[in-house]
Amino acid sequence: MRVFRGHSRPVPAPVALAVGNFDGVHLGHAELLRRLADAASRRALVPTVLSFEPHPREFFAPDAAPARLSTLREKLELLSEAGVEQTMICPFNAAFAALSADEFIEQVLVGALRVGHLIVGDDFRFGRGRTGDFALLQAAGQRHGFTVETMGSVTVDGERVSSSGVRRALAAGDMERAARLLGRPYVIDGQVVHGQKLGRQIGFATANLRIKHNPLPMTGVFAVEVGGLGETPLPGVANLGMRPTVGGTRPLLEAHLFDFARDIYGAHISVRFVHKLRDEQRFPNFDALKAQIAADAAAARAFFKL
To answer: Of the CATH numbers 3.40.50.720, 3.90.220.20, 3.30.70.100, 2.40.30.30, which one belongs to the domain with range 186-304?
Structure first.
């Protein structure tokens, strides 16, 4: 997938376009991207996404911004898997936030993206003060020669699928609910790095991933499946959080793979969270932590029926 940074230069060819943050790329996004691919095929356009970095809410209210479900890399990988051929990432800064709705249409949609067809969600608003809406896009389309369609909400079990809904499920420890809204288990991926190697001392060596999600969408101990190390995912148990018992100062994901002994430092892996076992907690000493890790591993093995 081609990735363009900013909107200073036009893309090579006209596009079918979807606009949004696409955090987590859940089932609602998946339906939008399916329609995007279909529209692009019918109109001989390039299926393209316009997204923003950082999330607009991180720009306007950084202390109250929601937890990110996916890093930029994870989002781009998910968009590519959904058939998106190119993505334009616009830096969401003061200059971009100051664009009026008409300037956004003229400079970004028409000037940079050469839009031929546009698909937006039914709640899409844009431009300074969020004054742009579907009617304004339709009128602009008539002037500039592009078509516009809107898509209603996707629901699961009577709930509108949204990134906020996924965050609520994760925060509540309901991995099964989160997976139904996402259409797959929730995943964090990254490169395996060296840690303190405390787990190795007690027979539970871990693959450690530095976490870029800040704040975390969830913390705790989970039964997980780890991809990227073979043809099929490998079962294990993982802790996601600050590791208060050993004085952790930054978020870390530690995954112990069952019956696995390879050196995988530097490998890029994906950790799928399939079931929450317990909340993260502080233990009075290392022996208590060691005993709980053994119990967590046994619980995860029981979950996987190993």
So the answer is: 2.40.30.30
